[in-house]
User: Fold this.
Amino acid sequence: MSLLAVDNLTVRLADREVVRGLSLRVESGQTLAIIGESGSGKSVSLLALLGLLDASAAAVVSAERADYNGSVALLGQPQARRRLLGTQIGLVSQEPMSALNPFQTIGAQISEHYRGPLPARQRAADLLEEVGIRAASSRLDDYPHQFSGGMRQRVLIAMALVNDPQLLICDEPTTALDVTVQAQLLALLKRLASDRKLAVILVSHDLAVVAAAADHVVVMRHGEQVDGGPPAQLFRQPGHPYTAQLLAALPQPRSGHPPAAGRALIAAEQLQVMRGSGRQRKLVVDRASLTVGRGEIVGLVGESGSGKSTLGRALLGLLPTSAGSLQFDGQPLLAGQLTGAQRAALQLVFQDPLASLNPRQTVAATLAEPIRLHGGWRAAALAAQVAALADQVELPTALLTRLPSQLSGGQRQRVAIGRALACRPQFLVADEAVSALDLSIQAEILQLLQRLVSDHQLALLFISHDLAVVRSIADRVAVMEAGRIVEQNSAEQLWQAPQHPYTKRLLAATLSI
Amino acid sequence: MARRVTYNLPLLLLAAIALACLLAPWLSPYPPAAQQLLLGAQPPSVAHWLGTDIFGRDLLTRLLYGGRLSLLVGLTATAVALLIGVSWGAVAGYVGGRLDAVMMRIVDTLYALPFVIFVVLMMVVFGRSLLLLFIAIGAVEWLTMARIVRAQVRAIVHSDYIEAARCLGLSRWQIVTRHILPNCAGPIIVYTTLTIPSVMLLEAFLSFLGLGVQPPDASWGLLINQGVETMEEYPWLLLYPALALTATLLCLNLVGDRLRDRLEGSAVGGDR
Assistant:
């Protein structure tokens, strides 16, 4: 008998059906994965089942059947359902920093709702041990900020396990983590599922994660289940065109030869960058040498904290360097002393397109600002330029009057790219520019970037933690670890014959379908 | 249609009050200061809608004339506070570092000065005048505004869109005026609508001490204070000035709320 059996679940939020006719079966010891792009209703359906939706959302939830363990009707018995939470059902959320209370030790947080017979500290220490935190008992009195992202996620899992639940629900548990950490965590989840006979529901948008971790997959789109099955079969023979479309949108290794790199447009030699002030001042980029030529895409990969964003900003003249030389088009580039032409020629595209756009400026105003500043265009000529720019980044003119909050993620990123292009740049740094986007949108933006590079002979530095994406777009790749560039090679060479142990480790941890 | 009217009611009421005060000389048949000692304090009647005060002056007339002064003080002093506070806070917040520390310590120091002594000192040194009253009140009220704006600016200055603007080559002035201040507009507007009432109350307090508006001129604060003295015999002398002040302050707060909701709603609305 299934631990969780749901038939025909429907969720309405403010007169909009966000989930329609969803049916799920979760068995003990098995991992069920729900995948879909943002807004597909994958998280909402679970939150609705558990009664965790915001009361202000005024959700109307109904289902033919929603039984937990054959005994509790999740939708009919709110009291009984609430008692299940934290005892029978454990939850692990996406963002481990905001899910932990920064003012409490993790020992206190783990054992806070413990209902068993053991001493609370003992229980917390055992659990930390189980989720793979070394010297567990000595870390009980540490605070969340003393742990890394992956460790925090482990703490959250320990917290969810405290009352020996039978069902563990993980909402995008690895999205915020580096690849090597992600691989470790997925292995942990797998081990827990088999050791404890735990049923796991894994919500994710990442096909590779799902393929690695799930026994059964449900594909959701627009609130409906469109496809399902074991991952091996599903990804080999998709039952629905949408699944096929998702698979096709996966970044593919780039084929064809890299263009012969001409003269380097931007050249950094033994560059050092310090950040922070006073005693906290530390070396973030250590003797990095990197060149990017016209029409060339160079990938910069590394884990969080490796200094890749800092290097990117230093190359744009946004951060002062403490040693080494930096040249742009043969001229030295000094932060704070850029000429107007240099400033315009060096542009940046950010990770989070919403945060990088002024929330009070319409698309047209955002695009017009740099054109007016650097081109001196006015009135009708300016409007024509804006329209041309929107056309270049394939943004419908109807969207020009909208505010960023009224756009989708992909549209926002097009605006951000358009704004960078408005200055007619020669060197563009894309800092995790597709990481916040859904798979299909990501593929579109990558195509756009490639087209712009070849159309305008741009030099592009593509910073990402996602190796598959980098492989799909970059001609050359630099690998960064702890502030140093440890390896640099053509993309093909790097994947076929990685030299540095860190590169090997990174590549080994990368999941693929 | 009916909903629209209710929605705009505070604004309409505010406009009506302001207009009535502005047109006082034409609306009222009585001179504001001429005493009719024989008449004395009369309760509201057909001839005197809100009654008369102990000197036989028409209360409605005095209310309308007093409103001109109260509103004038409220708006001018708030404008002074807004101007100093926003520029001070924006500079401190945007530049940061040592300048920020120095500027905010100055604000802290000024906070520590007792307000009344400060005003008395100014009156003693510069003599008593209405203009000085505006400056004195404005010079006190800008402190909180500066703190609010600075905190907002600090929060925004590290956001991606500011870095993007810097990367586009915008000047500091352009970044502050086009990107930072519009995004602090919500709290600034709300605090402004809260400042106008508190300024009007301050003026009432100063007038009560004899440092502000002098009889026979009137302001709402002064009328309320005079009303308090004779509250037991002639309650209408307290009731109507207090009602006028309360209604105006309430409307101001409601309008401020509306304005903030509209501004924030347009920028942050929709899903992300």
Observations:
- Chain B has one domain: 76-268.
- The radius of gyration of chain B is 22 Å.
